[in-house]
Design a protein that fits this description.
The chain is an alpha/beta fold. It contains nine helices and six strands; from the N terminus they run E-H-H-H-H-H-H-E-H-E-H-E-H-E-E. A six-stranded parallel sheet has the order 3-2-1-4-5-6, sandwiched between helices. It comes from Lactobacillus rodentium. This is HAD family hydrolase.
Length: 207
């Protein structure tokens, strides 16, 4: 069945997660007096790759705890979110892909970051984007959004890159999902409905 409605998770599909998180971490460390990020860069890369499938908020906490062990986590996390707002490195060809997708489907943005953070972050990009934004922090569930938008659940697809966040939640709520990932095998659980190597491939499955 072709999908008419898309719930799109921007982290990893719109934003390049590794580059933007690294830059936000680097700036956070600077604020706490750590100016030579090169000493921490290798550790960041190792930890990011190790925790790639963790829930995002958990990964942020693990990174900050490892790289800033002497700083209170709530304080470092708050500053990290502020820095993340200004990190707008986009994935390749995303404007074209979003334009093509929005011409044939209805799309909403769903983020696991606070709504004020993801809204400000999207505003700081050069994307021509006018889409509704929802946040998991506000306890919006996929099924709640589907009901609110009066969508047919069978025609709705969650698209994202994180197994522990959106793919697991889609599984839990019995909503179809597409996992965008290059070079990683599809796990038994959580199991996405579809697995694509790049975002543009989703156009083959929409109405």
């Amino acid at each position: 069945m072709p999908y008419k409605n898309i719930i799109l998770i921007p982290e990893g599909t719109i934003f390049n997660e590794k580059i933007t998180e690294r830059a936000a971490i680097k700036n956070t460390l600077k604020k706490f007096g750590v100016n030579n990020f090169n000493d921490k860069k290798e550790l960041f890369n190792q930890l990011f790759d190790r925790y790639i499938n963790e829930k995002r908020t958990k990964r942020y906490e693990l990174l900050l705890t490892a790289l800033l062990p002497e700083v209170d986590l709530n304080e470092s996390k708050s500053l990290f979110y502020q820095q993340l707002i200004h990190q707008t490195r986009l994935t390749k060809n995303i404007q074209t892909d979003l334009t093509n997708l929005s011409s044939v489907t209805k799309i909403i943005i769903y983020s696991f970051l606070p709504k004020e953070v993801i809204s400000a972050r999207l505003e700081n990009t050069n994307l021509i984007l006018d889409l509704p934004i929802f946040s998991a922090v506000s306890l919006d569930k996929f099924t709640d959004i589907i009901k609110q938008k009066q969508w047919d659940a069978d025609e709705t697809l969650v698209i994202g890159t994180n197994l522990s966040d959106e793919i697991q939640e889609a599984n839990d709520e019995n909503v179809d999902s597409m996992w965008i990932s290059t070079g990683r095998k599809v796990p038994i659980t959580p199991h996405p409905t579809l697995h694509m190597k790049k975002f543009a491939d989703c156009l083959f499955y929409v109405n």
